[in-house]
Amino acid sequence: MEILHQGSKTTSLIWKAKFCLKTRQTLENVLFHGIVTSTQEHFVQSSSNGIREGEGIDMRKLALLSAALLAGLYFSGAARAEGAATLVLQMFGEGTSIGTLDQVAAEQGIDLGNRDFGHAYSEFQCHTMALIDPATKLQLGSGIDCLANIQKDGNGGLTLTAVSFFVLPSGTLVSSGQTSLPAFINNFGDASGSDNARTHVTGSIPSGYNIIAATGQFAGMKGKVRLSGSMNIGDTLFFDCIFVLDLESA
């Protein structure tokens, strides 16, 4: 942890970090240990291939889970109050086509301010999938990736322009950037022949602030979003992309 100040403010930050760690441990206990009863509530449970839905959650443990999530939101709010926060989110699953960038922005109530991405909004094809916590596999919201200017690089790889929506209960963040997708070398780290097979690596590092819209609790914040992950590109698009969102007060 970076210590920025001494005294009570430092003590407060350390306490919040410990509180967040305890909350995380509690959340993991709730998610991974024996939540099977006759109550037919849905929850997201970890599996080797990502996320899946399960049934049957003890209402007492559901209340504990809710408390843990609220505590996590409190910590996020505290970090925001300090002027900075980092979110790690994963877009995971087969993408479902939902239209073009102009249509998605209108549906999500996002004003992109006629921002110039170098391509018409109608050229961006958008897909939605689960947005999860990569540590617990808990689904937090929805991810929407809008892609345009897809070009081949001559070696099986691709380049593209992306506008990404991170739709969470507490608000929505939108980023934009250029992404490189080099092709995996066959049978070298691509999980070839398995259910986890991937065709391309994904990567994007911003040169400056690239969060272009923020709503809800994120309103008034700016930041940088970087990407690393993989995709399976064929008749459908399978996303397995981890985003690190470094936020700060505007």
Keywords:
alpha+beta, nine-stranded antiparallel sheet, AOC barrel-like, two-stranded antiparallel ribbon, 2 domains, 22% helix, 250 residues
Question: Could you explain the architecture of this structure?
Answer:
With 250 residues, this protein is of the alpha+beta class. It has 2 domains: 8-82, no CATH class; 85-249, AOC barrel-like. Helix content is 22%, strand content 43%. The protein contains 3 helices and 11 strands, in the order αββαβαββββββββ. It has helices spanning 8-32, 59-81, 101-108; strands at residues 42-47, 50-55, 84-100, 125-132, 139-152, 158-168, 171-181, 200-204, 211-214, 221-233, 237-249. It has a 9-stranded antiparallel beta sheet with strand order 8-10-11-3-4-5-6-7-9. Helix 1 (8-32) packs antiparallel against helix 2. The longest helix is centred in the first third of the chain and has 25 residues, at 8-32. The protein starts with 7 loop residues before the first helix and ends with a strand. 27% of the residues are buried. The model is unreliable at 1-49, 52-68 and 70-78 (pLDDT under 50).
